[in-house]
Write a structure and sequence with these properties.
- This protein has one domain.
- It is 12% helix and 34% strand.
- Strand 1 and strand 2 form a beta hairpin.
Length: 134
């Protein structure tokens, strides 16, 4: 059996999305490259109340209802989504990771929740003040 040298450290090769504790939906470089997101300026978020899944569609239509600015830098991208997360009561107190499933006929990318990993970030807890401790 021969070993193969890994020569691309530091780059994710699996397309992934995370929801960060700042209320952003973040797309890694692999996701942006696979789905050719560079030309897009906006994204529209969707939520399925029954399955609790999030979907996103990318667009350049500045008049599309519900559009959000889609920021890009360094190969990755993000959407500031606090209003969306609050409206649908989606917890973002800890970073959450998602796999992707394309629904090409509807032009959507569906976020599929990944199971929690050992050592994954836990929700932030407010530190008790000295007065509360005492």
């Amino acid at each position: 059996m021969a070993f193969e040298r890994f020569i691309l450290p530091g780059r994710a090769h699996k397309p992934m999305v995370t929801i960060g504790t700042a209320g952003t939906v973040n797309f890694n470089r692999a996701m942006c490259e696979k789905h050719k997101l560079k030309p897009y300026k906006y994204a529209v978020l969707f939520f399925d109340r029954e399955t609790k899944r999030i979907a996103v569609r990318f667009t350049n239509d500045a008049k599309e209802e519900g559009r959000m600015s889609f920021g890009q830098r360094g190969g990755g991208a993000w959407i500031y989504a606090k209003a969306f997360l609050h409206f649908y009561e989606i917890d973002y107190s800890a970073v959450r990771h998602f796999d992707l499933r394309a629904e090409e006929e509807r032009g959507l990318i569906v976020l599929e929740p990944l199971p929690s990993l050992p050592g994954e970030a836990q929700p932030r807890r407010r530190q008790a003040t000295e007065k509360e401790k005492g």
